[in-house]
Amino acid sequence: MTENNNAELFARPKVLRDDCEDGGFVLSCPTPLSDYPERLTEHLDRWSNQTPDQTFLAERAADGSWDRHSYAAMRSAAQSVGQALLDRGVAAERPVMILSDNSVANAIVQLGALYAGVPFCPVSPAYSLLSSDFAKLRHIFAELTPSLVFADDGEKYAGALSALGIADERHLYSHKPLPGGRSIPLDVLIEAAPGEVLASVANDTDADAVAKILYTSGSTGMPKGVINTHRMLCSNQQAIVQMWPFLERRPPVIVDWLPWNHTFGGNHDFNMILANGGTLYIDAGKPVPGLIERTLENLRDIAPTMYFNVPRGFDMILPSLESDEEFRDHFFSNLDLIFYAAAALPQSTWKRLEALSEKAVGYPVPMTSAWGSTETAPLATSAHYPLERAGVVGVPAPGVEIKLEPNGGKLELKVRGPNVTPGYWRRPDLTQAAFDDDGFYRIGDAGRLEDDNDPSRGIVFDGRIAEDFKLLTGTWVSTGTLRIALLGACAPLVQDAVITGHDRDEVGALIFPIQAACAQLAGLDPATPLEQLIEEPALKEAILEGLGRLNAQATGTSNRVDRVMLLTEPPSIDANEITDKGYINQRAVLTRRADLVEALHTGVSGSRIISQADCP
Q1: What is the rounded end-to-end Cα distance, in angstroms, of the chain?
Q2: Is 291 found in the same domain as 193?
Q3: Are residues 505 and 419 located together in one domain of the fold?
Q4: Full residue range of the structural domain in which residue 548 is found
Q5: Mean pLDDT in the chain?
Q6: 60 in a structural domain
Q7: Do 318 and 412 fall within a single domain?
């Protein structure tokens, strides 16, 4: 693109509204969903025939160069793996479990399972590598009963595989086997010659067959396995291309770190590249110190046409974009749009990105978002029109209905459509509880219209129903809205925050500071421990100033924050406080750190607590 032309990018948003007797209403898209493939592998077949030499996936080789894999090569390898799985008797009721990070080998295993009609289950590597008790991993393994487990590096995953009691002959690897074992090398499977049985199985796999199982962290308890069918995945990509017609005019190119064990990276991004014949450069970096450098290196090498990230990821690359004009101009040179998801983007981050794009290309590159969940494959709404601020999540996608139903002073969002899961793997109890009497999935979020008189302006995300609470005054606190306002007011010092104050007089927050930003503010080394940084007067003063800015806009006790506590212990994966994408689980943090919440609200003194009462 040489200029900003939203008319060329997006389909015009259209919305139908059907009012209900209970005061709620149902929104839908009047544009019907066009035909879509029955199986996800049909996309790979299509591009292997039409553009066989086009790079599908690329990853860094040992020498630092890009190791590129074409559509034809990926299909050949995947079909061979599919045949080898069938030869080994792998069946639909015994999925293939994947423990590894994003990689070409990982993709070959996934696509091979799809050709064989066998579901695969990519599991968060954190459950294997960062967990101390392997409790979530063992729970998933017991519920899944996999036939094979792919862990690319047997030495790296030895502890996890031992905890699962994996026999050597059930371990599939691409780099290193289990020490002294009989693990199965992926290369052996790739040597298999696809036969008529594989072709028959692939053709007989219908749209409602299980393609993959994605385990969600959930707000409490153990992860639950969300069934993802081919219909869900294929219908979702068809809806996306109808809202983003530019995808058909230029094959997308992305540099992406988002994990494939999550629906954002694995369903939205990976499948979008596959469905539209694009190229995905696998980014081995992450938005954390020590790994963000890899992301920056990759982005300096490849100028994407679309950029997907979570708010924390944008915060981590912004300093480099702002300080390096050459990098800034390169990054924005080919961008059609910027897309954020997983959590609402602070308005301060939005404005910084917008300002950078105007400097680089002369106009603001469109920023957009969507809304959905693992259970909706993932997109249920899309903001496929110009936005001026974060928080608006768009209008229903083609084929999707969104019910907004009164619940506790808010409108609860529910979803129905071909993209919605039929239920949870081997958990009929959870499946039954997840749907209302009309077949709408209860997603647990709240929303409201941006403009009550014009539903085409979109839905505004209004927080999680279960996370909102009342103060002693009986006033409801919208935690999602207030959290975003707090992050914006205290930017760029705060990584995330958890809102507190249930059944209390005032609202507080537990704050996870950004170590590097706090150190820079204090003029100290970036490696300075947080325990030392929170003692710095400059940090306390800056947080107080942020609270002052936030509270100056408040209209009452429910949308102001009177006191905060700076945390030095990062959120725990074992305790379900955080996901791979960096999304904070509010309920889990409040439960695990109940003593800190009590200390915050009972006025216990200490340098970790900053209160508006401290203002002179």
Answers
A1: 53
A2: no
A3: no
A4: 469-614
A5: 92
A6: no
A7: yes
32 within domain boundaries: yes
Residues 108 and 146 in one domain: yes
Q: Which two tokens stand for residue 433?
A: 């509880």
Contact 269, 254 (CB under 8 A): yes
What is the CA angle 333-338-344, rounded to 5?
Answer: 155
Select the more confidently predicted residue: 584 or 9: 9
Residues 300 and 376 in one domain: yes
Question: Is 48 exposed, middle or buried, given 0-12, 13-18 or 19+ CB atoms closer than 10 A?
Answer: buried
Which pLDDT value is given to residue 2? Answer: 41
Instruction: From residue 616, give the alpha-carbon distance in Å to each of 183, 390, 508, 565.
Output: 67, 34, 20, 19
pLDDT band at 5 (very low <50, low <70, confident <90, very high): low
Predicted local confidence at residue 113, as pLDDT: 98
CATH code, 486: 3.30.300.30
Q: For 49-81, give the DSSP string.
A: HHSTTSEEEEEE-TTSSEEEEEHHHHHHHHHHH
For residue 552, give both structure tokens. Answer: 């100056």
Residue of 369, 396, 368, 392 whose CA lies nearest to 381:
396
Are 491 and 349 spatial neighbours (Cβ–Cβ below 8 Å)?
yes
Distance CA 607, CA 601 (A): 14
Whether the CB-CB separation of 320 and 331 falls below 8 Å is answered with no
Phi and psi angles of residue 76, each rounded to the nearest 5 degrees, phi first: -60, -50
Arithmetic mean of pLDDT, 250-258: 97
- Condensed to tens digits (0 to 9), the pLDDT of residues 478-523 reads 888 898 889 989 988 998 999 999 888 899 999 999 888 899 999 9
pLDDT per position as a tens digit, 449-467: 999 999 999 999 888 887 8
Angstrom distances, CA of residue 540 to CA of 158, 328, 614: 44, 32, 10
Q: What CA–CA distances, in Å, run from 211 to 136, 146, 459? A: 22, 14, 30
Whether residues 452 and 334 fall in one domain = yes
Same domain, 171 and 129: yes
79/198 same-domain check: yes
Contact partners, residue 118, CB within 8 Å, separation at least 6: 85, 90, 91, 92, 94, 95, 96, 147
Q: Which of 205, 220, 253 is the last residue of a domain?
A: 205
214-244 pLDDT per residue, tens? 998 755 568 999 999 999 999 999 999 999 9
